[in-house]
Design a protein that fits this description.
- The chain is α/β, with parallel strands linked by helices.
- The protein folds into 2 domains: about 15-50 and about 315-415, Aspartate Aminotransferase, domain 1; about 50-310, Aspartate Aminotransferase, domain 2 (3-Layer(aba) Sandwich), CATH 3.40.640.
- The protein is built from 14 helices and 15 strands.
- The strands form 3 sheets. Strands 4-10-9-8-7-5-6 form a 7-stranded mixed β-sheet, sandwiched between helices. It has a 4-stranded mixed β-sheet with strand order 1-2-3-13. The protein has a 4-stranded antiparallel β-sheet with strand order 11-12-15-14, with helices on one face.
- The radius of gyration is 21 Å and the shape is globular.
- The two termini are about 35 Å apart.
Amino acid sequence: MPGALSDVWYRSTELEVVSGSGCVVVAADGREYLDFTSGIGVTSTGHCHPRVLEAIRDQAGRFIHAQANTYRHPLLGRTAERLQAIAPASIERFFFSNSGAEAIEASVKLARHATGRPNVIVFQGGFHGRTALTMAMTTSKVGYRAGYGPLPAGIHVAPYPYWFRTGESPQAATGRCLGALRRLLATETAPADTAAVVVEPILGEGGYIVPPEDFLAAVRDLCAEHGILLVLDEVQTGMGRTGTFFAAERFGVEPDVIVLAKGLASGFPISAVGARADLMTRWVQGSHGGTYGGNPLGCAAALATIDVIESEGLLQRASDQGARLQAGLAKLRDRHAPGSDVRGVGLMQALELVDGAGRPDAERVRRVIARCIDDGLLLLSCGTDGNVIRFVPPLVVEGDQVDRVLDTVGRALAADE
């Protein structure tokens, strides 16, 4: 890399890529790699999907930047309408930003204006971004926060039901965490001071942790009981990743606010905050904005992404190929990593490795991922202890590619026994 480039970016590989198509990227030396990272869940329709490319090219010849305060382009309202059509029924209006962190921060600003309350509750292990406020909301790893204090106040952290790690039943985990959340409202932030509960439906960076089926619905009920807004951070779970457009559908939950980014435009930077109309009307006009929000190219890419997901049946494919991947990983776990965990929904799957004593085995994860990269497969780890391998391929992944991944991971696990 050029010497003028900052070293602050952590690198999971030393690869430099020159092109990509579907689930494959090509390195500068000409070698092809199967990409099961999707740029951390971003390239939802694969790298350089022809219809997304065409939409971007067409819009680039018309308008590249139309600042929403000054004048607006036709795709801005059209993108909001398309999102409204696929979003949970409670979500009626949209605001656009550029990144997930910006959108999460915007959702908190909206919640504070709409309720007149200052505080926010998040969950242990959550990742919400790298701005000052979203760092304060992030507890997946201390490295994301270290050295940046003091962070903004008004953030309170509740436990998330990580029932594989605690050894509880799903029902017991939900009960314990709901009890702790109620205790938090009794001891740290009164309901009358609490604007929102912000939660990832499935923890992403925190370990691809799927909550018990009843957990989010119970949080929804608790929020409604106290007039607290439920904000679903669907930055990673949204846009088909779990086999439905939104994970909220999987869990039968109607949020007050929803946040989207990553897969929204197949790689073009755009994010969105969707909310009930009555909440959006309480957001004081002019109190929030942004130079690039709702960029024409981003809107074109988002509209094309929705079209591709719908017309190519990618929601069903995510469910089918996710089930295929999960079943194969379970067999590999039983054969090479007994006591470890396989979990996930749709094409958001994880293999958490533990040693013979049940302790997190981050070293083995590093070795397995390194062997997979050498064998032409790109994977990432996650989790507070770094002992979770995550599988997050583009939604266009084919069955033979899933099988190739399982073969590659199986060889890597076997070589490490």
